[in-house]
Design brief:
This protein is mainly α. It has two domains: 113 residues, Calponin-like domain (Actin-binding Protein, T-fimbrin, domain 1, Orthogonal Bundle), CATH 1.10.418.10; 60 residues, Single alpha-helices involved in coiled-coils or other helix-helix interfaces. The chain contains nine helices and no strands. It is elongated, with a radius of gyration of 23 Å. The chain starts with a helix and ends in a 20-residue tail after the last helix. The C terminus is likely disordered. Its main location: cytoplasm. Keywords: Cell cycle, Cell division, Cytoplasm, Cytoskeleton, Microtubule, Mitosis. One of its GO terms (cellular component) is spindle midzone. InterPro entries: CH_dom, CH_dom_sf, EB1_C, EB1_C_sf, MAPRE. GO terms for molecular function: microtubule plus-end binding.
């Protein structure tokens, strides 16, 4: 038996300085990403959406989590389709497992969760940085080797007005980068679907050349796929572009 829902929520809020009220909120994937960032210190937190409010955005968070699992050889399937439904039992079981993993592998370093998530707020985040990381006071297993612990980092910031202005500009810049990155991922997501449709139509026409002459449904879909607006130019493909798998 693992911890109760109340115990897990208290642990999560203590570790990450959030104000999560129920385990179902872990279905966004954001808090889970940061739990593993507190262990490995290499989750791309700038890409994690703490204000996600759509299932598509949840999927992007879980894609990041799955990449971290693959990178560190964590042999545990992530039941994404169940978790993103934000049902209590599925998220409770996965959070209980995550807590056991954290107890075993958290290396014991100071961890500033607010700084790591770049000041992101949204549902579940307090937005206030603690003087010390709560992780050091939470229950955990002893680290196997201190030399393997990631280095502690000090958040950037200044005491004067100039420092506050710089921090505000950095935060605004991060928000803009996040927005652009999100739009690019959404564009690529839908483009891949259109590309799959195009390939299916091409395969069908190669198998039956008569379909090329027929002005039926397949031909009409192909016409729509290849239509462009005036002034539109098809962008050149970027060589060596990183392909992400989910």
């Amino acid at each position: 038996m693992g911890e109760s829902r109340q115990e897990l929520v208290a642990w999560l809020n203590n570790l990450l300085q959030l104000n999560v009220t129920k385990v179902e909120q872990c279905g966004t994937g954001a808090a889970l990403c940061q739990v593993f960032d507190s262990i490995f210190y290499d989750v791309p937190m700038a890409r994690v959406k703490f204000n996600a409010n759509t299932e598509y955005a949840y999927l992007q968070n879980f894609k990041i989590l799955q990449n971290i699992f693959a990178k560190h050889g964590i042999d545990r399937p992530v039941p994404v389709e169940a978790l993103v439904k934000c049902k209590m039992q599925d998220n409770l079981e996965f959070l209980q497992w995550s807590k056991r993993y954290w107890d075993q592998y958290f290396p014991g370093h100071d961890y500033d969760p607010v700084s790591r998530r770049k000041g992101q707020g949204g549902v579940g985040a307090t937005g206030a940085a603690p003087p010390r990381a709560a992780a050091s006071t939470a229950r955990r297993a002893p680290a196997a080797s201190n030399s393997a612990a990631p280095r502690t980092r000090t958040p950037l910031g200044g005491a004067g007005g100039g420092g506050q202005a710089s921090a505000a500009l950095r935060e605004e810049n991060n928000v803009l980068k996040e927005t652009v990155a999100g739009l690019e991922r959404e564009r690529d997501f839908y483009f891949s679907k259109l590309r799959d449709i195009e390939l299916l139509i091409q395969q069908a026409m190669e198998a039956d050349p008569e379909l090329e002459k027929d002005e039926g449904l397949l031909k009409q879909i192909q016409t729509i796929l290849y239509s462009t607006e005036e002034g539109f130019e098809i962008p050149a493909e970027t060589e060596g572009a990183e392909e992400e798998t989910f």
